[in-house]
């Protein structure tokens, strides 16, 4: 592995750790100040003010996130292989490769094969601090693997199975092999309002907002993000 690749990988680990602090609420104002004092940002992203206006992060939070992402990864982008390698570290008892693949392509909105800092921040803003409607729209995009504007049962099955594979054999209670299929059958039946074999965005939003059980199940995605 080249020196640049190692630095990129290290930077992405730091970036992931910062995300964890944001999720758990431990990235307090004082800690942000401390982190900024420990290592000054060598160069800040162009359009930081624009990112602040477009996301739900403060300028300080954006600076910390940017330092973890860009300073240690000079290329300013992460490819899918590196993304998978880092993601696997957080789920050592399972196989995170397929879920990381789907998540990477959800982040890579321009389909360039790499994810820039701006892509991450925009998605994280929605997933961590967006409205319920915004989170559901983003989740729909994740499940719509082929990006045709609809979700079919196989796409839903692919995502759900990838999540279960990632969680591994140490889930509690222990899951039966056909559990993912059973869950998909139930959810798809509820969502496919007109029984045409596909779920539209409107059907997805309506079903999720009507049924708390679906919302709770979809929170599994947010917890493993």
Automatic annotation (TrEMBL):
Main subcellular location: membrane
Signal peptide (UniProt feature, chain positions): none
Recorded GO MF terms: calcium ion binding; potassium channel activity; potassium channel regulator activity; transmembrane transporter binding
Any one GO cellular component localisation term in the record: voltage-gated potassium channel complex
Pfam families reported in the protein's UniProt record: EF-hand_7
Entry keywords, A to Z: Calcium, Cell membrane, Ion channel, Ion transport, Membrane, Metal-binding, Potassium, Potassium channel, Potassium transport, Repeat, Transport, Voltage-gated channel
Compartment annotation: Cell membrane
Gene3D superfamilies: EF-hand (1.10.238.10)
Domain EF-hand residues, every copy: 95-130, 131-166, 179-214
InterPro entries (alphabetical): EF-hand-dom_pair, EF_Hand_1_Ca_BS, EF_hand_dom, Recoverin
Alphabetical GO biological process terms: regulation of potassium ion transmembrane transport
Protein name: Potassium voltage-gated channel interacting protein 1
Gene that encodes the chain: KCNIP1
């Amino acid at each position: 592995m080249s020196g640049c690749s190692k630095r990129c990988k290290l930077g992405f680990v730091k970036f992931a750790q910062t995300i964890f602090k944001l999720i758990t609420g431990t990235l307090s104002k004082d800690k942000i100040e401390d982190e900024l004092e420990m290592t000054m940002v060598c160069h800040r992203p162009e359009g930081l003010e624009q990112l602040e206006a477009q996301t739900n992060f403060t300028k300080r939070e954006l600076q910390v996130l940017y330092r973890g992402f860009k300073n240690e990864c000079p290329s300013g982008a992460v490819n899918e292989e590196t993304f998978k390698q880092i993601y696997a570290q957080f789920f050592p008892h399972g196989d995170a490769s397929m879920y990381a693949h789907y998540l990477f392509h959800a982040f890579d909105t321009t389909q360039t094969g790499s994810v820039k800092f701006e892509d991450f921040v925009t998605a994280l803003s929605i997933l961590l601090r967006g409205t319920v409607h915004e989170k559901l729209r983003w989740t729909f995009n994740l499940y719509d693997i082929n990006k045709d504007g609809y979700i079919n049962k196989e796409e839903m099955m692919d995502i759900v199975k990838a999540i279960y594979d990632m969680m591994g054999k140490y889930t509690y209670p222990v899951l039966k092999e056909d559990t993912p299929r059973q869950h998909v059958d139930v959810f798809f039946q509820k969502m496919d309002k007109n029984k045409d074999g596909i779920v539209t965005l409107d059907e997805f939003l309506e079903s999720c907002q009507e049924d708390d059980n679906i919302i709770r199940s979809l929170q599994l995605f947010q917890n493993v993000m």
